[in-house]
Amino acid sequence: MLVAEAPMTLPKVSINADQPSTTLHNYYEAHKFLRREAPGRLVNALGQRTMLVSEDFIVGYQVALEEEVGDAAGEIMYRCGFEWGRQDITGFETRFTAEFGFGPGDAKFGMMLETWWWPLQAAGWGAWRYDLSHRKEGLVFIDLFDSAVARSIGNVGKVVCHYYAGMFAAVFGHLARRELSGIEIQCYSMGEDHCKFLIGSSKRINAAQFWVAEGATATEVMSRL
In this predicted model, what pLDDT tens digit does every residue of 124-144 receive, in sequence order? Predict the structure, then answer.
């Protein structure tokens, strides 16, 4: 599943048929990022097929899945996000190498991460801020602002951004060349102003998952780790 085929929230815009003739980065104007190839076929600047959906679609999808499978919904969404991230970062490496003439591993890490993320932000998945200061302990923290899922669902008193947790785990695990897991430890849907994710070994994530289930805050989880 291409990330661009996942639900997106974008304002109503007029989509131009013409695409910029030069490669652009970090631009967020929908009329530059999207083009209509044919009736019913919308693609983004990377050539990936895209669809625009409403917040009601996102809410309906989440609610229907929870009604169908109950508590397993979170794990299903996490696995979907993980597969999404795995495929997206693999495709990104190919695009990055073709454009810059060297692999992502040879680029400055921050530049590489921002080059990977900006199309997702342009597609409506939100802005991010990553914290690598604990990477020597095997931990990565990510703040997400304007989550497409959480802002659509609203305050329901629990974490809801399982897609993102899976995606971040897959991407950072791929870059670290080892298996990593992820969990959301703070969510806009819990009344917070942004979402926060923890990426680390399965042992660390299992511990964090237990603490979150017991009602620990993100600050408390971080301090215990």
Answer: 999 999 999 998 889 999 999
22: phi then psi, degrees, rounded to nearest 5: -115, 155
Residue 136 in 3-state DSSP? helix
Which residues is 198 bridged to in the sheet? 141, 183
- Residue 199 β-bridge partners: 140, 182
pLDDT single digits (tens) 165-209? 999 999 999 999 999 999 999 999 999 999 999 999 999 999 998
- Structure tokens given for 160: 């809801």
Rounded CA gap, 152 and 9, in Å?
A: 9
Return the CATH number at 216: 3.30.1380.20
pTM of the model: 0.87
The sign of the dihedral angle between the CA atoms of 201, 196, 136, 26 is positive
Domain assignment of residue 31, given as a range: 3-50
